[in-house]
Amino acid sequence: MNADITALDNARRRLGLSHYDLWVRYLGVGGTHDAYRVRSYLNGHGTFSNADHDHLAVALNEAFIDAGNGRPLPYRIA
User: Which of 19, 37, 60, 71 has fewest C-beta within 10 Å?
Assistant: First the structure.
């Protein structure tokens, strides 16, 4: 599995978010894929565009900010 995808899923776990919780946050920042596709991507199956990957990173970074932990995840698109 790609290291940056692994980082996303590890971050999800650290935050205690279910795949569904992350998917809801992902939709809230502009993501368009369904929950099944998000879970599949985080399990190393399929591909996401750089923008969709970054939507997941934004959703997770916002959750880290909410928890008072800054933004630990980098974005693919600067």
Answer: 71
Domain membership of residue 74 (yes or no) is: no
Task: For residue 53, tell me if it sits in a domain.
Answer: yes
How many structural domains does the chain have?
Answer: 1
Per residue in 15-57, pLDDT tens? 999 999 999 999 999 999 999 999 999 999 999 999 999 999 9
Element holding 62 (H helix, E strand): helix 50-66
Model pTM score: 0.93
Nearest to 24 by CA among 70, 46, 56, 52: 56
